């Protein structure tokens, strides 16, 4: 057992410099820094995310001898969109986020996230701004942009918008990645995500950041469906040197559609034996009041610092990871 930090003083100084660069970047663009709560009365319904929960005994909504559940936020997204719906302008936040996932080379259950929202932007314009930030912090002079569909065709010669389980299982088997759980998996999106993570991500973004955009509509999450092509969502992710760095959306503003997506998430969670989550009605009410047209992105600060320092593990850019927190 070691009581000492896993991040050196030299790395701590460099981390501080990167964060200062980020704040200077947004200051120059008149994007305002905000703060939102880390604890909230609800959490995400996302099938692939699990939140930490705690008990609060002083809630005005429960009896004095009862407790209510508060969730450590997996992202400040819902709260920041509530700010936008209330009349706030372009804003960003650097905050802690928490996800109940295994500690590993690129992930700590408690991590630092940069999230920002730009009024009047779509996902393509926001890609340009993310690329500009990476140029500042990482010295990347160029980036690659490619659609999700083009990427799968280029790397595996399959169209992800038209594929099926049989074709994906054949590809997985041909690459010796088949396992028991995959053989019984029926969800094409889950198989696509596996193929993306295992067979495609290791090949992209080796030399320059790779922005993959226009994901399948079934993987829209909180993104708009494209007006020009209903088979895709206006969503992007950025990959660089083996790291998934950022996830951004041209944000969905339709409250009814968002409610339906959350309900669908809960149906899938039930099928998987996971607990259903109460839908965040504060967020839905904010959408009903009118979320302005905007695009937003979440970027992992710890992973960004890893890239800036050429670090091999996230532990090298954290003072105390979960292993000795």
Summarize the structure.
36% of the residues lie in helices and 20% in strands.
Broad shape: globular
Q: Over all CA atoms, what is the radius of gyration?
A: 20 Å
Order of helices and strands: HEEEEHEEHEHHHHEEEHHEH
Tally the helices: 10
Helix percentage: 25-40%
Q: Biggest sheet, in brief?
A: 8 strands, mixed
Instruction: From the 3D structure, determine the CATH topology.
Output: BirA Bifunctional Protein, domain 2
CATH class: Alpha Beta
Would you give an account of this structure?
The mean pLDDT is 95. The chain has a single domain (9-143, 208-317), classed as BirA Bifunctional Protein, domain 2 (2-Layer Sandwich), CATH 3.30.930. It has 10 helices and 11 strands. The strands form 2 sheets. The chain has an 8-stranded mixed β-sheet, sandwiched between helices. Strands 2-4-3 form a 3-stranded antiparallel β-sheet, with no helix packed on it. A hairpin with a 2-residue loop joins strand 9 and strand 10 (243-250). Helix content is 36%, strand content 20%. With 325 residues, the chain is an alpha+beta fold. The chain is globular, with a radius of gyration of 20 Å.
Topology:
Layout (H helix, E strand, L loop, with lengths): L8 H20 L3 E2 L5 E2 L12 E4 L11 E5 L4 H9 L5 E8 L11 E10 L3 H16 L5 E4 H9 L8 H10 L5 H5 L3 H13 L9 E7 L15 E9 L2 E8 L4 H17 L9 H10 L3 E7 H9 L16
Parallel strand pairs: 1-5, 7-8
Antiparallel strand pairs: 2-4, 3-4, 5-6, 6-11, 8-9, 9-10, 10-11
């Amino acid at each position: 057992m070691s009581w000492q930090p896993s991040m050196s003083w030299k790395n701590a100084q460099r981390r501080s410099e990167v964060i200062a660069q980020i704040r200077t970047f947004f200051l120059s663009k008149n994007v305002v820094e905000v703060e939102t709560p880390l604890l909230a009365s609800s959490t995400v319904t996302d099938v692939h995310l699990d939140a930490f929960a705690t008990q609060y005994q002083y809630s005005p909504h429960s009896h004095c001898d009862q407790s209510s559940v508060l969730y450590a936020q997996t992202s400040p997204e819902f709260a920041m969109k509530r700010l936008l719906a209330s009349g706030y302008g372009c804003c960003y936040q650097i905050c802690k986020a928490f996800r109940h996932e295994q500690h590993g080379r690129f992930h700590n259950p408690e991590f630092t996230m940069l999230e920002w929202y730009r009024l009047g932007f779509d996902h393509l314009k926001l890609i340009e701004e993310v690329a500009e930030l990476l140029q500042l912090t990482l010295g990347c002079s160029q980036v690659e942009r490619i659609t999700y569909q083009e990427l799968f065709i280029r790397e595996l010669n399959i169209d992800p918008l038209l594929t099926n389980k049989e074709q994906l299982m054949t590809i997985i088997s041909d690459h010796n990645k088949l396992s028991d759980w995959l053989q019984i998996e029926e969800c094409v999106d889950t198989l696509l995500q596996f193929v993306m993570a295992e067979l495609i991500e290791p090949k992209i973004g080796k030399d320059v950041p790779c922005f993959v955009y226009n994901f399948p509509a079934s993987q829209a999450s909180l993104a708009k469906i494209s007006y020009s092509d209903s088979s895709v969502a206006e969503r992007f992710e950025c990959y660089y040197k083996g790291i998934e760095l950022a996830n951004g959306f041209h944000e969905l503003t339709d409250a009814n559609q968002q409610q339906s997506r959350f309900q669908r998430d809960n149906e899938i969670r039930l099928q998987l034996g996971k607990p259903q989550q109460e839908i965040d009605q504060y967020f839905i009410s904010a959408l009903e009041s009118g979320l302005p047209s905007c695009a937003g992105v979440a970027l992992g600060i710890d992973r960004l610092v890893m890239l800036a320092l050429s670090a091999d593990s996230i532990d090298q850019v954290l003072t105390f990871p979960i292993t000795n927190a």
